[in-house]
Amino acid sequence: MAQHETSPVAAKTPVTALAAALLTMVLWASAFVAIRHIGESVRPGSLALGRLLVGALALLVVVTIRREGLPPRAAWPGIAGMGVFWFGLYMVALNWGEQHTDAGTAALLVGAGPLLVALLAGFLLHEGFPRPLLVGLTVAFVGAALAGASSGGGDTAVVGVLLCLAAAAGHAVGVVFQKPALSHASPLQVTAYASTIGAIACLPFAGQLVTDLGNASAGSWAGVVYLGLLPTALAFWTWSYALAHMPAGRLGAVTYIVPAITVVLAWPTLGEFPSGLALAGGALCLLGVGLSRRTPRTAPATTTSPTASPAPERASTESGSVGEVRGETADASGLARAQD
Questions:
Q1: HEC states along the chain?
Q2: Model pLDDT for residues 220-254, shown as the tens digit of each residue
Q3: Are the C-beta atoms of 171 and 113 separated by less than 8 Å?
């Protein structure tokens, strides 16, 4: 079922995957602001559990309506890893970290995740380390640093920094688990059941959730529902869709846009006004993402005699057919080739 959903789209409409990734970035940026806004009334663990319960329920309803059912057995290790590390560890650590840092700084620190994603994907998923990806990561990281450094205010205690870096690590490990799962199950299945596993992992905070929401305002309730429906259910679904059609390292570079968007969104909501440094950082983020998406130039073919065997070309085609996922390929080729 996953093959029918992803492979044809991956081959024909890579722009759709990019649009899904950009929507994800906007929603995730809004999550940093929302967490900061309601973090005073809802504790980190209970906020993560409430968000995941809402998101998992919404996604499971969609799974039922679309009759996608349970993922195949081969997808479950990746789904479980994503659920524990990304939905569980990431969300609790991020909520806790944002009690000690402002939204922009938290977004910057979590922005270290794509570097870990690119490194892990290069080694474990054999996506390689093409030069455009490395150059784009470097430029985008500088932009993220400028955008994050421009957002003043808030306590940048060491504990907050460490917690946000722990969230970044959870994000990176979760992506590496998620990518192989998408070769066996649809993006909707992976997201729905991973969020369910994440909610189960956060059940020890159930008592806190009941207490916190019992004393919370209507705005805090609305914030939890918002985080569950949009930055969790919808954004992680669109992220899974994009990841199913793009190499993990290259898609990870797109997340460098999040700190710049976070600073802009925090302007009307948290009273944090973006400076010229923030705008410059956002421009560098966009430039870095663009550079990372460039396809490396191939060396010109050497002249061969008319009787020369075309064996190298056949070998290259055969290599692609067995699903080697490489970062040097076009964005749409990674998972689609693995599924052929």
A1: CHHHHHHHHHHHCHHHHHHHHHHHHHHHHHHHHHHHHHCCCCCHHHHHHHHHHHHHHHHHHHHHHHCCCCCCHHHHHHHHHHHHHHHHHHHHHHHHHCCCCCHHHHHHHHCCHHHHHHHHHHHHCCCCCCHHHHHHHHHHHHHHHHHHHCCCCCCCCHHHHHHHHHHHHHHHHHHHHHHHHCCCCCHHHHHHHHHHHHHHHCHHHHHHHHHHHHHCCHHHHHHHHHHHHHHHHHHHHHHHHHHCCCCHHHHHHHCCHHHHHHHHHHHHHHCCCCCHHHHHHHHHHHHHHHHHCCCCCCCCCCCCCCCCCCHHHHHHHHHHHCCCCCCCCCCCHHHHHHHC
A2: 999 999 999 999 999 999 988 888 888 777 777 78
A3: yes
What is the residue type of 147? A
Cα–Cα distance, 166 to 113 (Å, whole number)? 9
- With a cut of 70, list the residues of the chain below it in pLDDT: 1-13, 114-115, 125, 147-157, 272-275, 278-279, 282, 286, 289, 293, 295-340
State if pTM tops 0.90.
no
Structure tokens at 306: 């008319």
Residue with token string 């679309």: 66
